[in-house]
Amino acid sequence: MKTDKDLNYRLYIQRNDGFTRSPFEYELSFYRAVQSGDTEQVKKRFESIRPDFMKGKGTLSQDPVRNLMYHFVTAVALVARYCVEGGLGHDTAYTLSDIYIQRADKMKNIEELIDLFGEMELDFAERMRTLKKDNVISLHVRRCIDYIYEHLHEDLTLGVLAEHVGLNPSYLSKLFSKEKGMSIKAFITKAKISTAENLLRSSDFSCLDISLALGFSSQSAFISVFRKINGMTPKRFRELHYKDVIEGNKHGNE
């Protein structure tokens, strides 16, 4: 298969050049920061990678500007997806995504595109921050939700969450269910599966990698939960949706 030949060659070149991609958990933490409206974290992350912006990013085109443009399209589409998952309006997220892609398409140099990355990321994060403030929930439940998104890769328990927010486990459980309309366990599962869906759509990470990164006890446990929620296996989901995020960045795709 020609693709396998190209893949093996590219991996060989990358090994020889000492190329390494951005760590998996680092990418996840960034999208979660935008989703949670953590503008300070988003700013710090951009400032830290600004001097060597292309480090850890693959080559999608031999033309430097077009290469960065492809990365921008992927990034803004993923940011939009994560924000929709976090509660941002569907039309708002994808229309904003379209606007940024149209702006990027007019740019002729790398420096302008890099600046647009920072502007786009902060714009989405600020909208999510405003959204979180408007959705009035108690401080304890907000801290609980923030902790969940920051520790999706861990085996989260009611006891751990209760200790973090300083409440009795039973009281936190009742408070959370009252304000969010679902149990803490259901919320955690939903958050993990939503993150898994985004990764299956837009990355090459295996089911095993995803299950480990999201704190499932095993790959089979991840597949079982995913199938229960989506009515299909992660493999089938990827076959249907893989990288549809790049193909035109259609509104909602599904």
From TrEMBL:
Signal peptide: none annotated. It comes from the Bacteria. It comes from Ruminococcus flavefaciens. PROSITE patterns: HTH_ARAC_FAMILY_2 (PS01124). InterPro entries: Homeodomain-like_sf (IPR009057), HTH_AraC (IPR018060), Tscrpt_reg_AraC-type_HTH (IPR020449). Residues 142-240 form the HTH araC/xylS-type domain. SMART domains: HTH_ARAC. This is AraC-like DNA-binding protein. SUPFAM superfamilies: Homeodomain-like.
